[in-house]
Design goal:
The complex is a heterodimer of chains A (291) and B (294). Chain A has 291 residues and is mainly alpha-helical. Chain A has twelve helices and two strands; from the N terminus they run αααααβααααβααα. The longest helix of chain A has 27 residues. Chain B has one domain. The chains are: A mainly alpha (291), B mainly alpha (294).
């Protein structure tokens, strides 16, 4: 039981970082990334590709981070200043393409069956790493949130024309946010790979993206604490339905489907009943300084 | 070469019927409805269930279209209507919630296993190309559906009202067009077309809850290529996309470059779809057919 609790908290910490990354993109900057699983997958596939070809752990980490940074810019580039509908579709398409590529091209990292990577064998060490990463990322996100860049991101979220009239380049702000946020998610992905010890395409499906979205919307988009609270809540539902499946004897895939259904209903209900989420965004008041 | 063309037409038909519903909805309510894909899957299952009652294909498909249309209206009443004041992004995210709920519902009721429609098909030879009677029926149904939609939008008062609503909602409302009722009608049409398209898609392949992922990328790529809000654009997008996919998969690239035969593996179908979408977004910031349903 205790082992399981340690593992659950580790997973909550890792997925919280992914939700924080989405919060920077969507909550603060208004970027609708429907492929949020992609930077996480890129981060996890760095170690996997490295392991599959006999590279070291640090090489894998570096590869994952590099792929995420380049991937972010590549995915953002064709969309540029087009509306968010297109960005949503392109990011969704990119995440599916990457997954299909990993399924179909076996030499990269084992194809459908996946690859084993070095595993952090001590669960407490894994927990420490995950909590350390979450703390560091929370501090980074908080720093960005309260900086002039954070304010500019909020302006961009509300009105990109206004950003342009302030003499800033909206696309450059978006690109910067995307690279930083994707690096965060990639770090989480790399840690995930080493905690689980195994990387396969099935862990990075479209459904995972929307579990992160449910967590963020439930917690409160635009609030950093909200991303963590929402993730904890969603992972709690996830874990308890697993127990329910074992206890009630219902078929596993039925319960897995019902779990996704619950997330869908939660997502809709939050929009209908509590739009600002469990932890609403802090309203920022900025006074102009001096004459 | 003829075979590639034939395959493209059949695949484009399946995609186009689903895609026009997304464009129709986008032009009136201004957001990309991801739940639309689930309407198509649901429609396929409704047809399957109606077939199970011993009904013929045309009747079963009609019942499925009506039921799915009603489901779309219910979703509008329960979810999208209360959210109408929100930004398009919010509605788009909420539509994913609806999609997840539907997906799990379908999988829970019908199970995850694939089901196949029992159809007997005849095969015809056109030169060295093969076409089945099922293919012909799919294409004929699609053309008929498109003609009906076109007549409805351009030859009836309801159609004029819908197009006015798409053009300028406030102006249309002040001119006495009932926006809420027409929006409900629009959702009914979108749902019915999704059900028809989903049935055609399932006829050509298999019916299973995972079908949504096979439909999702090509349909949204087609709609995006066509400029999201234009129905004619969605059909054109479906044709362009289907042709690109079938050429990429059907042409022997190896023989062009060297003496060895080499085909692009067919698993890369969706990659072609997304690549076509990205290329269009890169080189054509203006839409293929701009504006709403005019």
């Amino acid at each position: 039981m205790l082992d399981f609790l340690v593992f659950a908290v580790t997973m909550i910490a890792i997925w919280s970082v992914v939700a924080l990354s989405l919060d920077l993109q969507f909550g603060l900057c208004g970027l609708v990334n429907f492929g949020q699983i992609l930077p996480f997958a890129l981060g996890a596939y760095g170690p996997a590709i490295s392991a599959a070809h006999g590279g070291s752990i640090s090489a894998g980490l570096a590869l994952g981070l590099a792929m995420a940074a380049v991937g972010g810019v590549l995915v953002l580039a064709p969309v540029g200043r087009l509306s968010q509908d297109y960005w949503a579709l392109v990011s969704l398409g990119a995440s599916e393409i990457f997954r299909l590529l990993m399924v179909n091209v076996t030499p990269i990292a084992g194809g459908q069956d996946g690859t084993a990577v070095a595993r952090v064998s001590n669960p407490l060490a894994a927990l420490g790493l995950a909590l350390g990463l979450l703390l560091a990322m929370l501090l980074l996100a908080r720093r960005i949130d309260r900086s002039p860049l954070g304010r500019l991101m909020r302006v961009l979220r509300e009105d990109d024309l206004l950003v342009a009239t302030l003499g800033r380049n909206p696309f450059r702000v978006q690109a910067l946010v995307t690279v930083v946020a994707w690096l965060m998610a990639a770090l989480a992905g790399a840690l995930y790979a080493h905690v689980v010890g195994f990387v396969a395409p099935s862990s990075f499906s479209v459904a995972e993206t929307f579990i992160v979205w449910t967590a963020l919307i439930l917690g409160g988009a635009g609030s950093l604490l909200g991303a963590v609270v929402g993730t904890a809540f969603v992972q709690f539902i996830s874990v308890s339905t697993r127990f329910l499946a074992a206890w009630s004897g219902l078929p596993f895939d039925l319960v897995a489907n019902l779990r996704l259904g619950i997330f869908g209903v939660v997502l809709v209900l939050v929009f209908l009943l509590r739009r600002e989420g469990l932890v609403p965004e802090r309203k920022v008041r900025v006074d102009a300084v001096g004459p | 070469m003829l075979q590639i063309l034939l395959n493209s037409i059949v695949y484009a038909s399946e995609i186009a019927v689903i895609a026009v519903g997304i464009s129709l909805a986008y032009s009136v309510v201004r957001f990309a409805n991801f739940a639309h894909i689930q309407y198509a899957v649901l429609g396929g299952y409704f047809t399957y269930a109606a077939r199970g009652l011993g009904l013929g294909f045309p009747v079963a498909t009609a019942i499925s279209a009506v039921l799915t249309g009603l489901v779309a209206i219910i979703v509008e009443r329960l979810v999208f209507h209360p959210l109408r004041g929100l930004r398009p992004e919010a509605k788009m995210i909420a539509s994913w919630g609806v999609a997840l709920a539907f997906r799990s519902g379908v999988a829970a009721v019908f199970g995850g296993a694939a089901r196949v429609f029992d159809v007997e098909t005849d095969t015809y030879l056109l030169g060295d190309a093969v076409i089945t009677s099922l293919d012909l029926a799919v294409v004929a149904t699609t053309i008929a559906a498109m003609v009906v939609l076109q007549l409805l939008l351009y030859r009836t008062r309801i159609g004029t009202g819908l197009r006015a609503l798409a053009d300028n909602r406030d102006l249309a409302a002040t001119r006495g067009i009932p926006p809420d009722r027409l929006t409900a009608l629009m959702w009914f049409l979108a749902g019915a077309f999704a059900a028809l398209g989903g049935t055609l898609f399932a006829l050509e392949t298999r019916l299973q809850p995972d079908m949504d992922l096979q439909i999702l990328l090509p349909v949204f790529a087609a709609v995006t290529i066509g400029g999201l809000s234009s129905i004619a654009g969605a059909v054109a997008g479906a044709c362009i996309l289907s042709l690109a996919q079938n050429i990429a998969i059907g042409v022997d690239f190896g023989a062009v470059l060297s003496s060895r035969s080499w085909f692009l593996p067919s698993q890369f179908r969706d990659t072609i779809a997304v690549a076509a979408m990205v290329l269009v977004l890169c080189f054509r910031p203006r839409q293929l057919r701009s504006g709403g349903v005019r």
